[in-house]
Amino acid sequence: MASVSSSSRLSKAVRQQYMSLPQGEKCQVTYIWIDGTGEGLRNKTRTLDCEPKSIDDIPEWNFDGSSTYQAEGSNSDMYLIPVCMFRDPFTLDPNKLVLCEVLKYNRFPTETNHRANCNKVMEEVKEHCIWFGMEQEYTLLGIDGHPFSWPSNGFPGPQGPYYCGVGANNAYGRDIVECHYKACLYAGVKIYGTNAEVMPSQWEFQVGPCEGIEMGDHLWVARFLLHRVCEDFGVVATLDPKPMTGNWNGAGCHTNVSTKQMREEGGLQYIEQAIEKLSKRHAQHIRFYDPRGGQDNIRRLTGLYETSNINDFSAGVANRGASIRIPRQVGQEKKGYFEDRRPAANCDPYSVTGIIAKTCLLDLEEEEESQ
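Structure tokens predicted for Glutamine synthetase (371 residues):
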């Protein structure tokens, strides 16, 4: 039996007795933010007198940053600035989830608030209508840290039958995946799809297409929903880029990119121009593609298990061993998008989309202006 949390064994029938109580005109609003690790999510809930109609109706709040790795105890009040509102799939309508930016006491962004800088970049490239789609891979673990449903003293069969697999011997934890999917749809997250991945207990969901800053907002809330759903089931979702050593696939967050010019007839030339610019800034991008400046991705980007080598830049049509993949259909139609396969599963989507937009569009514009 998989190792699940004690909380997940509490009576759901008793819980439902209270959850079904009326709440009058009041509205519960859960504030969500990224903590000082750059990976963890925190949340807390307050009552508003009525249902907010827009993000402008959500007041700022604060929290103790010394307990979230974001401040010292002597000056620990941090500001929560609401930026994006969703429906709450756990306490249901009219209650809301609100994603927030975090500001320090001086109202400057915290070190792990990468949204602020990303938003500036997206405003500068707004005319390009840049779309993103991110493929979030993750691995289900028991609370003992062992992959969910793996033998307690061994390993499952080798990779092969698990990718997009079906059947109790191939798909581990599908209930979690399907509940997460429904929670995203209810909340209003732009979830595109989901599938079982190559390693058993590893899954993927896709979010997008999203334009500009919306990509980071929706992926972070999708991650929050994943962790909350897993909490209800008593298991853990890890975004570690290489949760198991040996002959097992790692976990990435492949990022698909398309501008207005790339989507139009003859757009392939703009895709190729973007790839050329990306090739010149490979090392810098690697530093932005995981929370530890590339140290996490070293374990994953080995050139094996459908990855490129972290030290080399490569691109190719339909090549899943390349840094950048041009889908075969895009190569045939001469327009569309490209896929950056380098970002790690635990990347910050604001950092990833921000530097991609900056490299592909802002530098290109500066070169054109100087000619």
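DSSP finds ten helices and 13 strands in the chain.
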